[in-house]
Amino acid sequence: MPHVCSGTTLGRSRRIVISRAWPSSKRSWEYGRRPLYPDSPPIAGINRISTSTIQRGHLAAFPLSSSLSLSSKKPTAAVASSLVKTSGKPTTTYRTFSSTMATAGEHHTLTIDNVFSNLRRMEYAVRGPLLLRALEIEKELKKGVKKPFKEVIKANIGDAHAMGQRPITILRQLLLLTISPELMNDPRYPEDVKNRAKAILNDCKGGSVGSYSESPGIEIVRRHAAEYIERRDGHPADYKNIILSNGASDGIKSFLKLFNEELNGLPSGVMIPIPQYPLYSAALAEFGLSQIGYYLDEDNKWGLDITELERAYNQAKKTCNPRVIVVINPGNPTGQVLTRANIENVIRFAQKNRLFILADEVYQDNIYDPDSAFHSFKKVMIEMGAPYNKMELASFMSISKGYMGECGIRCGYAEYFNMDPDVMAILSKSISAMLCPTVLGQVAMDVVVNPPKPGEPSYNQFIKEKTAVLESLAERSRLVVDTLNSIPGFKSNPAMGAMYVFPRIDLPPKAIEAAKAAGQEPDVFYAFKLLEATGICVIAGSGFGQKPGTYHIRTTILPQKEMIKTMLNSLKEFHLKFMKEYS
Ligand SMILES: Cc1ncc(COP(=O)(O)O)c(C=O)c1O
Asked: 249: CA distance to ligand 1 center in Å?
């Protein structure tokens, strides 16, 4: 008999069930007695090495029967901290909350025993233990602790401004004018920016960006987004199908939430690429949706192979109802740009299996390979004709990426295509409970979807800045790939687009043994050693998922040119020493 946590009914009749006996070969977490991750490739921490650590922590956290030899003591903060750690032994080093909480339980209504267990299980590698240690090292450097390096290089996350990218002038000017309309009389601001600011403020209640907007966003910005899509695809777009959000992340979660419903006693399944951007594994874990991983083909520039989609789908449908396929194009962390033929095949596969397509197209401006082009799923679907032009699609865009890199201002949009109007009404109701996305984010989005036109005063500067950023990113992507491929044991596909490189690293058996002894995944072990020795913070491939027995790291291409050169030199030097030590 499985042990059911008393009183932890999740949502409707949903329960997290923990098997009493815990053979390491079996999956540890079950969802209504079905695996949460049916036949999915491993993702950060949900793997054999680290689950043993996590299992002990989780087992300690639940009142299991006395037949188990594991401790049933209430967890301390130290144990709890091991639950949020990606992998490795329980330790307080990467605790994400204060040690003053050490006596959790007695005075707390909300404890590790009864907090929403899906959130306990959720992981998000790009802000995980490696970054926490990097932040700690930064503090140590500030305190004067001697290290073999002077600064921490955060190549862990696609945050361009954090790595020195300059903002696009018109975007910041528009923010200034909408925040402080008295600046409209200031001759330093171009007339076209003033006109944009007036048009947006005209659509803001009380003429102020301090007021709530409509829940799906300010109408003029949604209209501009629809016009932007029409220009991009050459096909009509309806502004009523555009919903703005606090970053694409928020919109993606609002969309995935719609599938959080069991059909015929089985949970919904979402197909995601492996390697993937960890927002997806995190959101699926949070909602209790089944993750169906399909591997991208590393030997074929991380292409998307339809036979692999079939394999993943057929295996998963025994335990869940596959209902969505996520495609990230251009890819994060893998940097591939899908060909039009590849997209057509994915659309045919989705149509055959009645899957809703989630096209994560936030890197649509970041194409560096001169032989590749961005093709939106919507354009391809329309141009394929019936029945494909009637398929359901949610496509996402963001101000965080592209040439803008405005990650902190937060805005994204979704275009819903062929969505059932009744479902659209449910989605609208659901987002209205959050009132509205940040209005300043929407102002920034307006520049992206309504950029200056030829002849307008801001046009030349805008084009100059946009081109400079994109050309520099293209140059850095080539520099990173070429340098990594010159290091023995590194193999990287070209970064055709996006902002990352995901090289494979051949780790020697001795390093793999040492990682095991440290209770870490081998690439996590490598990434920690790299961080401690050089101050370079990258993310281990296991945070994104990878084929068993392969090891990767993900680095961004975002540090500015001189810094990226320094980074690559230190990485090379470190790797050669590491190989010597573990060969
Ligand atoms: C593929 C992908 N989708 C979505 C996002 C989230 O973007 P936002 O900052 O708009 O939430 C990111 C961020 O890195 C991403 O890489």
From this structure: 6
Whether 407 is in the pocket of ligand 1, judged by its Cβ within 6 Å, is yes
Contact criterion met (CB below 8 Å) for 40 and 292 = yes
- The CA distance from 235 to 104, in Å, is 57
Least confident of 4-8, 103-107, 173-177, 306-310: 4-8
State how far the Cα of 439 lies from the Cα of 218, in Å rounded to an integer.
8
- Looking at the predicted structure, is the pLDDT value of residue 172 above 50? yes
Ligand 1 close to Cβ of residue 362 (< 6 A): yes
Q: How many other CB atoms are there within 10 angstroms of residue 321's CB atom?
A: 18
CB distance 412 to ligand 1 below 6 Å: yes
Tokens of 171: 């975007």
Q: Report pLDDT digits (tens) over 534-569.
A: 999 999 998 899 999 999 999 999 988 889 999 999
Q: What is the pLDDT of residue 19?
A: 31
Q: Which of 84-93, 271-280, 397-406 has the weakest average pLDDT?
A: 84-93
**Within 13 Å and on the Cβ side, how many CA atoms surround 381?**
24
Sign for the pseudo-dihedral over CA of 546, 549, 555, 557: negative
Q: Ligand 1 in contact with 400 (CB < 6 A)?
A: yes
Residue with CA at minimum distance from ligand 1 atom 13: 158
| Residue with CA nearest ligand 1 atom 7 | 248
131, 154 in Cβ contact below 8 A? yes
Per-residue pLDDT at 526: 97
Q: Quickly count helices (H) and strands (E) in the chain.
A: 18, 18
Query: Which numbered atom of ligand 1 lies nearest the CA of 399?
Result: 10
Ligand 1 atom, smallest distance to 250 CA: 11
Nearest protein Cα to ligand 1, atom 14: 158
Handedness of CA 467, 473, 474, 475 (dihedral sign): positive
When pLDDT is averaged across residues 283-309 and rounded to a whole number, the result is 95
What are 31's two structure tokens? Answer: 């969802």
Is 534 touching ligand 1 by the criterion CB < 6 Å? no
Q: Is 404 in the pocket of ligand 1 (CB under 6 A)?
A: no
Residue 60: which pLDDT band, with cuts at 50, 70 and 90?
Answer: very low
Q: Is 326 in the pocket of ligand 1 (CB under 6 A)?
A: no
Q: Is the CB of 247 under 6 A from ligand 1?
A: yes
Tell me the whole-structure pTM to 2 decimals. 0.83
User: Does position 89 have pLDDT exceeding 70, yes or no?
Assistant: no
